[in-house]
Write a structure and sequence with these properties.
By secondary structure, the protein is mainly alpha-helical. The chain is built from five helices and three strands. Keywords: DNA-binding, Transcription, Transcription regulation.
Length: 130
């Protein structure tokens, strides 16, 4: 099994994530329409990236005449989200609660904050003052 044949492997590449974003925005696109959005790779490379995404089940292909149209498949994304939630769900929930609690607290006044240099404002910072 290659790294791209699973949704996780397919999502590991920046270009493939960009292709998924385009399909998310536009619904259904041809290889040519997708390739026009990239300056660093050509149509053949886009086709190869689409094959990885299709093999991973993240996109589906529809043939109409000589064109192939690609669009997103939702089911594998639910699998990825479910897996990540099972790993990090409790951690993310705790982080969200901590962020909400700290946002609810009043920030300390600037005069109450400790001096980051470890000295008070009347003490010279760089040694003896003349």
């Amino acid at each position: 099994m290659s790294c791209g044949s699973s949704p996780f492997g397919a999502l590991a590449d920046d270009t493939r994530r960009a292709v998924l974003s385009l399909l998310s925005e536009h619904g259904e696109l041809t290889v040519t329409q997708i390739a026009e959005q990239f300056t660093h790779i050509g149509r053949t490379a886009v086709s190869m990236q689409l094959r990885v995404l299709r093999d991973a089940g993240l996109v589906k292909e529809r043939r109409a005449g000589k064109y192939r149209y690609y669009s997103l498949r939702v089911e594998p994304v639910h699998e990825v989200i479910s897996f990540l939630n099972s790993l990090y769900g409790a951690s993310l929930d705790g982080l969200a609660r901590a962020a909400e609690a700290s946002a609810d607290q009043e920030p300390a006044a600037a005069s109450d904050a400790p001096d980051p240099t470890g000295t008070d404002k009347d003490t010279p910072r760089w040694g003896i003052s003349y």
